[in-house]
Design brief:
The chain is of the alpha/beta class. It contains 15 helices and 13 strands. The chain has two domains: 256 residues, Type I PLP-dependent aspartate aminotransferase-like (Major domain) (Aspartate Aminotransferase, domain 2, 3-Layer(aba) Sandwich); 119 residues, Aspartate Aminotransferase, domain 1 (Alpha-Beta Complex). Helix 2 packs antiparallel against helix 10, helix 4 runs parallel beside helix 10 and helix 10 crosses helix 13.
Length: 479
């Protein structure tokens, strides 16, 4: 389809602005552009058609099954959007006096309280803008804690080899050296490898549980104890909290701080529907180091104050406020009974789909999974030449978004599938049938899968080239 710039025609437009009802302000010449910006000029009807065509080329949870592993692409209830659109929330300004923003401060306070209860933490900052930003913030707390005690020798962060790629990146950004520990044959942390890695230079451990292959580590209490015995702290990556929220709490597993993805677990739009939010919770001994300001209540009124030994701001003002509104709406709607129902539903759906595919596709690890499972197509590729990429691309022709491909790195030819709790049994049955049909195609006509997708607006672009040399700016063709 044509770009919006290619639809442009000089002199066309669709904006009708009212007459200015305030005094005009003459912008200084030094601040003015020397030439007009290159903006498209387009009629309203053409503009509407352009965005409708774009919408038809996208795939979201309203279009079909979206089993993107470790990303929790669940259905987002419309009531969340309605609450976030209330004028009292949208017409607020972060610099207005706190006494005029008591309702918004109460939202922040209630969100902190509920998230603290769900995670088993004592305080929460809502400033971080996304998951990796939350990781960075949590590690800043760990760093500040050690430095406050004069312990400058702790320079290493332990990260499992199955971790999300942002974990080592965040640790490096905080100035730490990353130490990788291996997974055992069951896909969990190798305890001997962990014991060999910890020492007086250990600042902390970054871990998600359930882990990246969708398994709850049965040794989790021993893992956190090993790190604590070495003087380190334990950081919980909350990317997979969707499997355990309301059932088990990171704080009870021995973790000292945690980040959450409100845009995953707590049903606010994810990815292109963002922005995100990555609150960080911590135990009381880390609270003095939290980013500020934080919400406090004094004499029946909400106020803002900076923690005593704060690491400073990590985000302008108080984070992405409307995302927090949506998450709090979701939590209050589900309530104490609904939160664990959502997580157990996610686990049930993942196991139901995995059970239908077992015996046909090779599972990376056997036994019950949590919210997601990982298949390995290594044998299929050796026998037929059909790769995980081929299967993922073919799913598009059936109206199913591809699962995560080639991750985690410890599984060769990996496909990671996360159904989420919001999918029906009928959807899962259909997905299982599609996976089985594609498997038959792989054995009978592997060449056709190399060309998939066959019915999508875009077939197989040069993904490596696009990643390394992205074209992000429109260059007009000279007349």
């Amino acid at each position: 389809m044509e770009l919006i710039f290619e639809r442009s025609h000089v002199g066309r437009g669709c904006s009708v602005l009212p007459a200015c009802d305030v005094p005009a302000y003459d912008v200084p010449e030094s601040l003015c552009r020397k030439s007009a910006p290159m903006l498209p000029e387009i009629a309203e009807v053409d503009l509407g058609r352009h965005y409708t065509q774009l919408a038809k080329q996208t795939h979201g949870v309203n279009d079909g099954f979206y089993p993107l592993g470790s990303c929790t692409m669940k259905y987002n209830p419309r009531v969340n959007e309605e609450m976030a659109a209330l004028p009292g929330f949208t017409k607020i300004h972060p610099l207005q006096p706190v006494e005029t923003a008591q309702g918004c401060l109460e939202v922040l306070a209630r969100a902190e309280s509920t998230l603290s209860e769900i995670t088993g933490m004592d305080r929460v900052t809502l400033q971080p803008a996304a998951g990796a930003h939350g990781e960075y913030t949590g590690l800043l707390l760990i760093r500040a804690y050690h430095l406050s005690r004069g312990d400058t020798a702790r320079t290493k962060i332990i990260v499992p080899d199955s971790a999300h790629g942002t974990n080592p990146a965040s640790a490096t950004m905080c100035g730490y050296t990353v130490v990788s520990v291996p997974s055992d044959a069951d896909g969990c942390v190798d305890l001997d490898g962990l014991r060999a890695a910890v020492g007086p230079d250990t600042a902390g451990l970054m871990l998600t549980n359930p882990n990246t292959v969708g398994l709850f580590d049965k040794n989790i209490l021993e893992i956190t104890q090993i790190v604590h015995d070495a003087g380190g702290l334990c950081y919980y990556d909350g990317a997979n909290l969707n499997a355990v929220m309301g059932v088990v709490r990171p704080g009870d597993m021995g973790f000292d701080c945690v980040h959450l993805n409100l845009h995953k677990t707590f049903s606010t739009p994810h990815g292109g529907g963002g922005p995100g939010s990555g609150p960080v919770g911590c135990k009381a001994f880390l609270a003095p180091f939290l980013p500020g300001p934080v919400v406090v209540k004094k004499d029946g009124q909400y106020d803002l104050q900076m923690p005593e030994q704060t690491v400073g701001r990590v985000r302008t003002f108080y984070g992405n406020f409307l995302v927090v509104v949506k998450a709090l709406t979701y939590i209050l709607t589900l309530g104490k009974e609904g939160i664990p129902e959502a997580s157990t539903g996610a686990v049930l759906n993942a196991n139901y789909l995995m059970h239908q595919l077992e015996g046909h596709y090779d599972m990376a690890y056997h036994g019950p999974c949590m919210h997601e499972f990982v298949m390995t197509l290594e044998t299929l590729k050796k026998e037929t030449g059909v790769s995980a990429m081929d299967v993922a691309k073919r799913l598009i022709d059936f109206g199913i978004h591809p699962p995560t491909m080639y991750f985690p790195l410890i599984v060769h030819e990996a496909l990671m599938v996360e159904p989420t709790e919001t999918e029906s049994r009928e959807t899962l049955d259909h997905a299982a049938q599609v996976f089985l049909e594609i498997l038959q195609e792989a054995r009978k006509d592997p060449e056709s899968l190399h060309e998939a997708p066959h019915n999508a607006p875009i077939g197989r672009p040069d993904e490596v080239g696009a990643a390394r040399h992205p074209v992000l700016r429109y260059t007009p063709v000279e007349a």
